[in-house]
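Example complex used in Figure S2.
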Amino acid sequence: MSTVQEVVTEAPVIEDAIPKKAMALGPVASLVILALLIATPLFVKNFIIFQMTMWLIYAIAVLALNILTGASGQFSLGQSAFYALGAYTSAILMEHGDINYVLTLPVAGLICFIAGFLFGLPALRLSGIYLALATFALATAMPQLLKLGVFEHWTGGVQGLVVTKPDAPAILASLGLKVSQDMWLYYFTLAVSILIYIFSVNLLRSRSGRAMMAIRDNEIAASAMGVDVSLYKTLAFGVSAGITGVAGGLGAIAVQFVAPDGYTIQLAVALFLGMVVGGVGWLPGSLAGAAFIVFVPNIAESVSKGLSGAVFGVILILIIFLVPHGARQIAYGAQGLIGKLRRN
Amino acid sequence: MPSHLPRTAALPAAAILMAVTCSGTLAQKSYDTGASDTEIKIGNIMPYSGPASAYGIAGIIEAAYFRMINDRGGINGRKINFISYDDGYSPAKAVEQARRLVESDEVLAVFGPLGTPSNAAIQKYLNLNKVPQLFVAAGATRFGDHREFPWTMAFQPPYQSEGRIYAKYLLAEKPDARIAVLHQNDDLGKEVLKGLREGLGDKASMIVAAESYEVTEPTIDSHVLNLKASGADTFLSVTTPKSAVQSIRKVAELGWKPLYIQGYASASVGSVMEPAGIENSQGIVSAYYAKDGSDPQWKADDGMKRFYAFLADYAPTARASDISVVYGYGAAQTMAQVLMQAGDTLTRANVMKQAASLKDFVPDTMVPGVRLNTSATDFYPIEQLQMMRFKGHAWEMFGPVIDGHLE
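Predicted assembly (751 residues):
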């Protein structure tokens, strides 16, 4: 069966210390991370805040892929297509429709949910690497579809669309708070991320989430128990695409620009990478995975400009070799260590 | 005690007086972020990785050029600190790198970022923050729009100018031409075609057929067949190297003998003409502004001698025949000229002002007759092209340098 399934079901070294369905962090760890995410921007430059915003946005996209692959066991190399769809939806609504950026996000999410759900229907017949290839086709097709002359009036064709960055609401200024555009966008993104995270954790704990995981673990057994396999598989696709679309919309607002070349297969591979590095099926790992795809290329570049790709590759291989389960393994390891110390 | 008062009051007065005289005699040494008495910080963004990484060599050459300048004592006594980052040809990454250059490294100006999507992505940010985006390595017309983007300046001729220059050439040499155009479905293809239409003016009906193709199409044979069927006797191919090679081969294979014009984006001897077959490429016409580094006719040329000497000392592994190598050298030399003109007034506004006051500047690598001119209302430094015809194994120039000036 698929490698992902192996990765997910194979018990990590210290798994028995943790309940099997733990896909989220404990309350203390969650609060510490949240406090850090809230406090850090107050002390750093705007540029770092921008990087952190991109980090959160990619984390949302990685989380979406995690729901699809980690929870329902379906591969996707086509997330960049949904990301692009969301980005363009937001950009077009903002620039051509003069719609407030906040309102464009649910629209982007909805459109991507529908697109993902529809794509999930034919994808039902495929599994494992075949599904990966089908989604791969979607990712390669998307940049070209965006360039089509028919849509050019709205998409701006190859030249792309420039998006206006939103200002912080006037009410903050009237309260005497000086909030820069970057900082505002960061907190806005953070709020959206938290909402999506809570939604995802609850989704996976619900009946639907259990159904998805049952399908992941054994499709035949799941259907024998009365799980509507096709419904939940397409639903997973739809939810994942919808969340990716919201991330795409946020990305368009943060970068202030959309162009077909921004959403190539490379983005899809990066998201896939982020999921593996963060730990497949472990939602908080999305943050670690996104940090990897945002910051590690910069580290690689500072080591060697000409060989940045090779350095990146070496770092990646080291991670896969040393911690094959990604950030999840490190977190579980740390938890196990703390538990041991307490007992002693 | 009272006697102290006038004395303390006199001190600030003296200071003010001194400041006034100093600024008069020392001739306005003023700096913006990124410049000081010893250093000028210049930022750059290049696709060192990713789909366009072949062009990344331009950034390496630019870095080498500034190293040479520094070894010779810098510009007006200041060393150039050239900071170049990789964007992998991704617009989102380009925005991140531009912000890092401006907000973290605090550069004086961003010079020579490569690619239309990356530059379009950072254009608004840099203009909003009033940071010069100088000598953009992309040919879209929007990079020389001085009204909309007063902090952005192009370098190479805008694609539209190229189209106009072909129109001028055809109107003069072959006024009864029936033109077929094969163009890539992107800014390059569309803008050259637009320039051609504009240049032909009321004779635009000379274009009898135009076919667009996607850069990812494995073969363009069917497009060439359609264009031949249109009965055209002139063929303009606005293509990138792979498709350029295919189209030269297909035209030869069909036994079609049009006046063949190859857009300069793919006029490289090494990467297009030779792979397409020297035999098939004979007589093809193109136009370019820079000398071909592998062309023996420039062996004795003073400018190219300096270029070859530079390569030998600072970039011995770079190939002189690579267009991006020649490009990087010319662009870096122009940037150095602007900084030299700026003198001790190293403010962003003055750098922009000096970039817009190039007068007949001729980098070592330009074809004779091509001069760089800019003004407050002209943000396209290079707008002339030299017509050339492929003969034997090299391009042979003919006719005068043609101007494709855009308003």
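Residues 33-262 of chain A form one domain. The CA atoms of residues 92 and 98 of chain A lie 9 Å apart.
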